[in-house]
Amino acid sequence: MIAYAMTVRRWWVVAPTLALIVFVCLAVGASEVPVPSLVGGMTGARLDYFAPILAVIAVMYCMDRRLPEPERTAVVPVRRLDRAAIAITSAFALGSGALIGMDIARNLVLLVSLALLVRRVANEATAAATGMALLVASLVAGRAYQPGGSTTHTWWALPLYSAGSVTAWLATLCLFALALFVSCGDSGFSGPRRS
User: Fold this and answer.
1) Is 0.90 surpassed by the pTM of this model?
2) Does the keyword Transmembrane helix belong to this entry (predicted)?
């Protein structure tokens, strides 16, 4: 199974991707890019806010690589291998939170979980694009003004929550558990079933 994970699924790709995310986050620091907002004007978004998309792409790349016949006849179901690899990826992402920020690490787990759920009904490309769409939608439509005039986030814009938000962590962990339970059942959407 380990040989299958490394040669077919290519889970080794995730390790350099996580290293690249750490490097990007450290390199860009607090640099911001202007983003239009529906509440008015332009707001700034840190560049490292978009770094978790790299991990989503890497995980979807690995999930897309498969050999259907050997997977059906494998002694150990490949879904167990996938679940373990996703759990290890998330653990390493959270471990790197000390370097990249726990909000970025949480968003990485959130976006991977969302991508796994979307992959269940669509394909890997759509799943990866959904993560980017959530990030952009959160920036553009997920901000609001408090009565005092300061900006805050709306309830649904989880990527904008602070690193210490218990609500965002609980939602992310619930989504992650659901994604592990639901998403690794078979190889995603493959059209009509043949008997």
Assistant:
1) no
2) yes
Judged by phi (left if over 0) then psi (alpha if -120 to 50, else beta), residue 194 lies in beta
pLDDT of residue 23: 94
Measured between alpha carbons, how far is residue 16 from residues 40, 44, 49, 53 in Å? Answer: 39, 29, 19, 14
CA distance 156 to 175: 13
As to burial, measured by CB atoms within 10 angstroms (0-12 exposed, 13-18 middle, 19+ buried), residue 26 is exposed
Using the Cα atoms of residue 10, residue 194, residue 191 and residue 127 in order, give the sign of their dihedral.
negative
Q: What token pair was written down for 36?
A: 């239009």
- The first and second tokens of residue 112, run together, are 């991977």
What is the C-alpha to C-alpha distance for residues 169 and 48, in angstroms, rounded to an integer?
A: 19
Among 112, 108, 134, which residue's Cα sits nearest to residue 183?
112
Instruction: Enumerate the β-bridge partners of residue 32.
Output: 46
Please indicate whether residue 15 or residue 143 has the higher confidence score (pLDDT): 15
Q: Two tokens at 121?
A: 């009904």
Q: CB–CB of 11/68 below 8 Å?
A: no
54 close to 131: Cβ distance less than 8 angstroms: no
Given a contact cutoff of 8 angstroms between Cβ atoms, the answer to whether 131 and 71 are in contact is no
For residue 149, what pLDDT is reported?
63
